[in-house]
Amino acid sequence: MKSIIHFIGFCFLYCAIFATESKAAVNLIISGGIVPTSMYNGASYPITIYVQNTGTTSTTTSFIVNISINTASTYNGGQSYLTQFTVNGLAAGASKTLNTTITIPCTYSTGTTYILAGADAVNSVFEGCVACESDNNTPFGVLIKSLPDLTPLAYSLSSSSVGAGNSLTASFAVNNDGGSPAGNFNIGFYLSSSSTLNISQAINLGGYTSPSVPACGQTLLLSKLLTIPAGTCTGSYFLHIWIDDGNTITEVDNQNNFQNKPITVTGGTAPPIPVSTTESAIGQTSFQANWNVVQGAAGYKLDVSSSNIFATYITGYNGLDVGNNNLKSVNGLTCNTPYYYRVRAYNSCNNQSAASTVISVTTSACSCIPPVTPTGLKQASSTTNSISLSWNASANAQSYIIKDCNSGTTY
């Protein structure tokens, strides 16, 4: 009887302790997460994992949250480690959001697989029961696909400054981080005033077709001699490289195909000197100035003077921008007067040529235009020995003559 009482007492004590431990146990789980359902091998992706303590006891012990990849939905020894977090304890009922980026191994097989998230991966925290330890892991189903992913590496220029019309060498590597090889593709080079490439506003410096690049981090080392066009304006630019120019290769990401380097272009050249030709359409107060078109000119500036050394200029004709034309009517002149004209060409950089040879031209001789016959002649008033006359003004008249028809006297 005594032994039975002792046994019953021991049972009550043990059961009470067990019940207390069960009620107060820590229970760490992966309560969810945000993981892409489709990924490419060799590519990187952001993920979010939620770890929670569903128990009623807090833990101050640090524990590991492990992220792995496996073709099975459980940790069966075939998983591959991707990354991990250290969580410095977790209060009862609390949860923690974990953000990171994972990279799918480039050689990983395509098809359905799983991203495994495991709380307390090395069992640092006592969770009080077998069931509490077995619910720490959560799988996220993912479809693994494969494509190339080309990027430029180690892009450099042989000089950071180059004269217009001269050349420099671009050295670079092409890397394929994707899980599939890339066939032949184009590599383009563009000169732009902007660090963001817009090919409609950039100067195409040419390129060439690259050989294929094997998968999984394989690299080609290449170089290209580039010539800056002679008409390029002096200034600061960016020399862009575009791997897979035109996007002919289907890739994981074609936004990482670009790089640029700053470069200064010096010594922009002016267009050739235009040749003035004989004037035409000469009038008493005007003539037409003429000249030949020159290659590379965006426009011309015209000088007109009554001085053969251009000591002064006719108003409005001191470097008059006439646009991209090779003639201009000059007006507001004086008859029978010598004038002189010359032109300068400018390009899109506003680099100006020297002045052309000077052409001299004399406006037409002055001539008198007969006045119009006066009208409206009438007597305005009179006295015993005089009269006053009035009439309408006559065009082109400088003065008037009044003649007495009886005596022949003129006034």
Structure summarized in a few sentences:
The chain has helices at 2-23, 130-134; strands at 28-34, 38-40, 44-53, 59-70, 80-90, 95-103, 111-119, 137-145, 150-157, 161-163, 167-176, 185-192, 203-210, 218-227, 235-243, 258-266, 276-280, 287-291, 299-305, 320-321, 327-330, 338-346, 359-362, 378-382, 387-390.
Note down, in words, how this protein is organized.
The chain is 7% helix and 44% strand. 26% of the residues are buried. The strands form 7 sheets. The protein has a 5-stranded mixed sheet with strand order 2-8-7-4-5, with no helix packed on it. The protein has 411 residues and is mainly β. A hairpin with a 6-residue loop joins strand 17 (276-280) and strand 18.
Draw up the topology in text:
Layout: H1 2-23, E1 28-34, E2 38-40, E3 44-53, E4 59-70, E5 80-90, E6 95-103, E7 111-119, H2 130-134, E8 137-145, E9 150-157, E10 161-163, E11 167-176, E12 185-192, E13 203-210, E14 218-227, E15 235-243, E16 258-266, E17 276-280, E18 287-291, E19 299-305, E20 320-321, E21 327-330, E22 338-346, E23 359-362, E24 378-382, E25 387-390
Parallel strand pairs: 2-8, 10-16
Antiparallel strand pairs: 1-3, 3-6, 4-5, 4-7, 7-8, 9-11, 11-14, 12-13, 12-15, 15-16, 17-18, 18-21, 19-20, 19-22, 22-23, 24-25
Name some characteristics of this structure.
five-stranded mixed β-sheet; 25 strands; about 5% helix; mainly beta; about 45% strand; about 400 residues; disordered N terminus; elongated
